[in-house]
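User:
I would dearly like some help making sense of a protein record. Take your time, and here it is.
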Amino acid sequence: MKILLIKLFNSKTLFFLITTAIILSLNLIPLIMQFRHSPPGRTFALIHNNAQDFFFYQSLMNEGANGAWLTSDPYTAEPHQSSIIFSYFVWLGKLSNLLNLPYAITYHLARIILSILFLLSIFYFLFSTRLPHPRLTYLLFLFAAPFMHKIADGSTIPYMNWWTGMDPIRRVAYLPHHMFGGLFLVISIILIIKFFSLYVIPTGVEGSPAMKLHDERFLDKPAPSEVEGLGMTRMKYLLWLIFISALLAFVHTPSLFILLLIIPPALFIYFISYKSILLGNSKHQITNIKQAPNHKYQTPKFGILNIVNYLELGICNLRFPFAGLLVYWFIGLLFLLFMVSQTRNGFPWSQYIDWEKNLQFPLDRELIGAFGLTFPFSILGAWQAVRSKKFEYILITCWLFIPFLFIPIAPKLGISNIRLIQGIPYLPLAILAIMGITILTQDVIPSVARNLSTCLRNNLAFARDPSTSVGMTRLAQSRDSNNNFINNLFAYLFIGLFVYFTLPTLQWSLQDQVREYWPIFGNVYLDNRLNNAFAFVNQNFPPKTVTLGTFYTGNYLPAFTRTLSFIGHFGYTYNVEEKQKKVMKFFEGKMTDEEAKEFLMSNKIALIWQGPEEKPIYKDYLYPKLLKLVYDKEEVTIYTVEF
């Protein structure tokens, strides 16, 4: 077993494959169990998140498979403008049609493939950025979980259990567009760090290797070929960043929003550190800055005019990274504003603004608990990251903490506060936590232990051997042994606490996911005979036929037929509450013929679906003077309007 673990940790490929396979298997177990749980004659619809949203995505894929390129609302009969919002699901439907796969299968393949690429990008990021203990960081990212706590009814649940992004099992392979956003957010961070690394910025004391490198490549004029090569590479990174910002704005705008939020403070904090070097304090001085090519500045002096000069040096000089990243930031902001403008094109797209403002969660009460055991260590890691003056560490710190500062003012910004934690915060959290643990084990704990026990160890060492040299040698050996013991003790303690707090959350997550879709609901475990009715509608009625069913039927009908549901989704049905009352009154048979006629005519309803959800409401035929039977089976009765 020990040899296997050693091989696992020594091989990057094997480590990634095994750990990733474990977490993805946990993610898929509930789906497989629910599919196998399907009773005879029924099939699980492969729902893995919210049933309404799942069928909404399937409905958009159905639109794409039937020729659409833009998104139209499948759950309202009112005229509205098509939109590019969610149109990537429309295009995914075209791919599903091309591959001849059911929409649900294509949907799950998309989220799993994107999840694997997302995890692979994180693994590459951890190793390419030379972060401490990348394997442990990856493990922490995969399995770090919220604390459990008791609620009013006496049950024990995780903090923020209502938000899937905090669940270690769910978040690793969530909605396809969320996985896309996470993937390209990580890629953007990698590109930003690579772009920044092409500029040599002094970070060491005078005479150090870092300062010598700075003297050679920044102060001295580089060869033309070197400048051209670096310039082309910088431009390549910048163009990729701009292209990805357009993709993020289109597919998962919150990921781009997080990026735009963290870049300015990261640059500012880094520039403050850089300015202290340029201004020349007792530890960091540049004595020959006037030798820089095309440089008008002299030896650093304090003063307002001089600070302005350094700002121009840091921001306007193209040999510094600030200008390029600010250009990227501005273009990314334009892409984000363009997507926001698409929400002003009438219902249902315009309701996103009001929905965002009102969708405020109790993050102030639950967020810290949701970050669990790793959060205290991340604070120490953040302190060390900023203190290091390394841009990549500063960027990671801003990635985690800057969005938190905007949570109290989210309503004033017109956004949901949940958007501020949609930038995969568990990744910078894990990175900073490992940095914090490293500082504790290498510096803080040994230092404290050494200071507390120095007197005792001195006495013991010299008591055993009065010889000073021998006594000091034994003292050093005793100190090293004690440090190793303390580090090992801390490691075992942390692992024990991590397992103690993580396992209950993982267990709860699996049970909750299985339990959520275990009951045999008609819109979750679909009657196989409905496929015949779906085929009948698709063969005999034109696309966009306005169809009336109850709420849950209307939710899944557009996913399997080319119809338009009169009602079917709380977010995408116009005036849903009033419509729902009328729909129930209609299917209960409580409308007069005149009322039913007016209801059908005013809403341009051409098809009525009386299926498994509707038949228990009223067991007889509906409004025989108004409706004509066109399909009559045990499971479904379909009518057309006859007037």
